[in-house]
Structures are given as C-alpha cells and as structure tokens.
C-alpha cells in the first residue's frame, strides 16, 4: 500500500524539482527544503518497512540517518560554493583554497557503519539485524545523493531499496531455502506416530538433526526447518495427528 503512495510522492517531487534551479547552480532556500523533505520521505519509507518488521532500527532511525547524511552533503556542497566564490573574487586564492568533495561524505559512510553495528544481534548461534544494518548504510548513501542534488539517483535508489526489502524477501522465502534450528518436544499416544512424524517433516522439507527419547511417550527433536515454515505451522500440523497428544517448542536459555 505504501509503495503506491511512494510512487505518487515521487511524481509530485519530480514536478517540484523541475520548477527549481538546475544542479550546478548555487543552492537557494527552496532547493535546501526540497532535499531535506525528500530525505525525510525516503528515509521514513525504508524505516517504516523495518519498523513494520519489528526490527531494532525502525522509522525514526532510518529517517534521521538519511536526513543526517543529506545535511552533511549539503554542508559539503555549500563549502564548495563558498570556495569558488572566494577564488572568483581573488584568483590568487586558487593556490591556497582547496575543496575535498569526498572528505565529509567518507566520514558519514564510516560513521553509519558503526551505527549499523549496533543493530546486529548475535544470540543462540544466529545473527540478526544484518539486513537492517545494510538498509541504514544504503539509506545514508541515498541521503548523500539527495544532498548533492542527484535527484534521479536518489529516487531510483530509494525505490530499489524498497523493492529489495519487500519484493525480494518474498522471493527469498519462496525459492531460497534458508534453514533455522529448532527444538520441539512431542508426546505420542502410539509408536506409529514416529513414522508419521518423519513423513510430516519430509513433506515440509524439515531435516531431523537429533532425536532424544525422554520416556516411552515423549521425544525431543532437534530439527532444521526452512525459513518459510513457521514454528506455529509445525506445531499445528503435528498436533492435528490423532496419535500425538502434545507438541511444544523448547527454548534453551543461554
């Protein structure tokens, strides 16, 4: 739904952009406002996706990262204009004044890298937050492009980031089988259930890593389940078997 709104916003922004000065002229207040608003919109849309997925860095974080990168780029551009003005006034200053266009931008990229590290969480042998960290880094790049006045690059990049986060996630879940380790405890009414459990796991492409017999009726399974199969689907599918009386997930505390 918000993708459709994003396209509508982009059309409006393109109209505004064409009504302002071209890139390369000294910035006026309208250009500064447009770039700041555009960075808030793109950063907010990417952040909304992360917030919706309940990730550590969400709506406001991505918005601030994009806005901060835009501000840094705006300062860099304005410093460049200032140096050019001084050189135009006094040609002798050309041997003294120099502008390193990439200096501030490089610091932004490296700084966001440290910020992204805070979104990465390692627990129980799994690593979470890599996509969120990458999205913050990408959003910072978009913010820099906006601040430098590269509107087409920034808008197309923002759309591309959203496509990767939303559409490709569905493709990944469907066609790329990434597994995760789970432990479940199953209480059986009949030993026939053991064969039926194996058939169920095979149907859902679940690999059995280990089976431990707790008692004559209770068994603990360590399994590798594809990402597209949720724990609720596994439990509900097993409990539907009349030869199984109870199924529960086992969470081992660190």
Structure description:
Keywords: Cell membrane, Membrane, Transmembrane, Transmembrane helix. Its main location: membrane. This protein is an alpha+beta fold and 254 residues long. The chain folds into two domains: 2-175, no CATH class; 179-249, 2-Layer Sandwich (Alpha-Beta Plaits), CATH 3.30.70.260. It is 60% helix and 15% strand. Strand 1 (121-123) and strand 2 (126-128) form a beta hairpin. It is rod-shaped, with a radius of gyration of 27 Å.
Distinctive features:
254 residues, alpha+beta, Alpha-Beta Plaits, two-stranded antiparallel sheet, 8 helices, 6 strands
Protein topology:
Blueprint: H1 2-18, H2 29-52, H3 59-89, H4 102-117, E1 121-123, E2 126-128, H5 130-148, H6 151-175, E3 179-188, H7 192-203, E4 207-213, E5 218-226, H8 231-239, E6 244-249
Antiparallel strand pairs: 1-2, 3-5, 3-6, 4-5
Helix pairs in contact: 1-2, 1-6, 2-3, 2-5, 2-6, 3-4, 3-5, 4-5, 5-6
Helix-strand category: alpha+beta
Measured as a percent range, the helix fraction is 55-70%
Figure out the total of helices: 8
Rg value: 27 Å
Q: Could you tell me the number of beta strands?
A: 6
Pfam family, one: MgtC
Organism: Clostridium perfringens
Transmembrane segments: 6-23, 32-49, 61-84, 104-123, 135-168
Protein name: MgtC family protein
